[in-house]
Design brief:
This protein is mainly beta. It is built from 1 helix and 9 strands. The chain has one domain. The longest helix has 13 residues. The termini are close together. The mean pLDDT is 90.
Length: 151
Amino acid sequence: MQRIDTLAVFDDLRNLDSIVYMSDKILATEAAFDTLTNQMIIFINTDSAYQAMKQRAINNGCSTCVFPNIDFTNRTLIGRYFDIGCNDIAQQRFVETSDSTYAFYNKFININQCAFSTCLNSTFNWVLVPKVDAVEQIEFFYGQFYYECDC
């Protein structure tokens, strides 16, 4: 059995202090978006964009969607949609880089050893961060940790 870690630097990263994880607060489905693709980036830094996403979900019949109030004066909401395995645990880090831009890391961890599941899941990985003017100011990284077996 071999440990595979495609984003080893992740464990050494520390979030900015003002980060708020929103994945358990915002409940959205595909109904909130025109299209969804794996690893799609969702960048919202205005109330009007947030309200448009909320309205799209309502218009498409999402009765289970939840969109808490967010003050976008000093905050930006970032999500990154992923198709993942049902045993994967999502973790995120949002850090400031040396050139005063940002990096958003998403890592999925599956600690099951030699257990194979074919069930699929999805996650938006929402995080509320200090105000960012443009998505181009953020570099995005993705990685996994899992065990590779020869069983």
